[in-house]
């Protein structure tokens, strides 16, 4: 990561080669400490410093873009020269809107530096718990310090410094596995022994799984499973690009019912569970955007380009330009309900308990049809209790239809995601969840 003073020095150098031009510069600098473990042994312990800089040049309304990881003066000069040359091409894209106006936004978290030894000690706690349960530990601990700065020739001068720790644990033996995770801004708030206990409990409960037939079941979805579904809905539905192209379902449903009335989803970087950067990759202040409220489709997120195209407000959700996906909500929140998870489980006479999904893929984007597999803790529910483990199942669902059938929402929420994108998700009870086929494991 780079301090604000270091960023200012880089911008000072860049300006020497940008005279008379419109420009935008982004600098993303990340320090990552990674400890991976498998079969209860650390097999990778590394640190990576990744500086990354990009520039957009606007030259007679033509755009030239380039990137570099070389932040020396020579590297910066070469970066700008490449972008200028690209902007002179007759094939260079045209800028259809102006660069964002002057802003100065800063969010500086106290830097938390975690040593390799601290990560190793955390792994030791995890392995100790797994060994007591005759299970092997697999997983990763990432500790991240990251800075992001966005500047432009109109006076945008934004800087953020963030810390977070991403941890996953899979406890395994020959026939079963269990999963747990944590994403926290402060490494020291993670109880690694408790996480390991959760993973071990799931693995021990998953021994000798039984076959059940595919079909439609009531499901209890833990937070990671819910986050997986909502993240795919975000890619398909919540950005302005597909809205503008009229290829998303939400583009035809604004102001109309699109899910069950107990479903509210919004994007809000200020939610305490998100990692939360206050500005987007064009330097525009992020706004809270209601996407679905009480089952009614309300809107999508925009950037400067699509805000102009759609004659809508720029909500501050640009990705790094050029952005083939268009604007995107990085801080999604599925609004919590009023039920305890124990109460939700007791409400299910017969159903399936899902810890998480994997290998999820889009089948038909126009119908929000996705498929994927259960993993690391799938159980059959009888009379409000987990009765026995079952073999993993493949699901095939229409996301909006699935959200029509939400019957209960937990009051507890967890943040689940990767890098700067994630979902604050509750657990859900959903009826008529479609399992298309079964597996042999």
UniProtKB/TrEMBL annotation:
Transmembrane segments: none annotated. Residues 214-436 form the Metalloprotease TldD/E C-terminal domain. GO terms for molecular function: metallopeptidase activity. One of its GO terms (biological process) is proteolysis. Coiled coil: none annotated. InterPro entries: Metalloprtase-TldD/E_C, Metalloprtase-TldD/E_N, TldD/PmbA_N, TldD/PmbA_sf. Residues 23-86 form the Metalloprotease TldD/E N-terminal domain. It comes from the Bacteria. Belongs to the peptidase U62 family. This is TldD/PmbA family protein.
